[in-house]
Amino acid sequence: MQAKTHMNSSIFLGLLPFAIAPILMLSILPLSILPFYIISIAIGSVLPDIDEPNSFISRKLYGFLFSLLIAAIGVFYFLKNIYVSYFILGALCLIIILIFLNSLTHRGITHKLIFPVAIVFLSIFFFEYIGFQMFLLSLGLALGIFFHHLGDFLIGDSYFKGGINNYFFPFGEAESRVQLFPKILRGVIGGFKEKIYFFIFSILIFLEFLVIGSNTIK
């Protein structure tokens, strides 16, 4: 799946609870934080392809790492929260480690279920230091990664064909391939089905914003 389709499908899924129960969700995640939640999902939706040299995230990698560094400095300088700064710097170090690990193979550890699960567990473990809002943004990142996986199950290339090998690593056989969607729904990268999905998700996101907006106007 192309980066733009990963992004809009992930944003649609991430906003779905807000469209279904907007008042409840906005009481949990304030409207002022919602844009950052969407950005975290968008980043997560392309992050797993950091192991592919020609992917969107790889081409923007150095700018992204620089942005994380600036964010860590900004949080420390303006908010005086050294723990959040450490958290962001930790995320930067994690990405650098992932680049090394994934240089061995495409669809490596970042394309396994354990990757977003590990982020959630780390966020829970450091919850006392990072706070509720940063936890929500970490959750958005993990959701974006998981939604990327769903996208790869739906739209694959000529080799993977909509599946991910050993998705439940470290459980299961190394060569086992998981397929979540029936063949009639699956397509290839850049193909007609992906274009249809991109169009549908774009329309649905627009409708979601209408629903959310209608519940925030007094």
**What is the N-to-C order of secondary-structure elements (H for helix, E for strand)?**
HHHHHHHHEEEEH
Q: Please count the beta strands (DSSP E, at least 2 residues each).
A: 4
The N- and C-terminal alpha carbons lie at a distance of 39 Å
| Overall mean confidence score, pLDDT | 78
Largest sheet: 2 strands, parallel
The low-pLDDT segments are: none
Report the helical percentage.
55-70%
* Overall 3D shape: globular
Strand content range:
under 5%
Q: What is the count of distinct domains?
A: 1
Largest beta sheet: strand ordering: 1-4
Structural class: mainly alpha
Instruction: Please compute the radius of gyration using only Cα atoms.
Output: 18 Å
Number of helices: 9
What is the topological layout?
Blueprint: H1 3-20, H2 22-28, H3 34-46, H4 56-59, H5 61-79, H6 82-102, H7 114-125, H8 127-154, E1 155-156, E2 164-165, E3 177-178, E4 187-188, H9 192-214
Parallel strand pairs: 1-4
Antiparallel strand pairs: 2-3
Brief rundown of the structure:
Helices cover about 65% and strands about 5% of the residues. It contains nine helices and four strands, in the order ααααααααββββα.
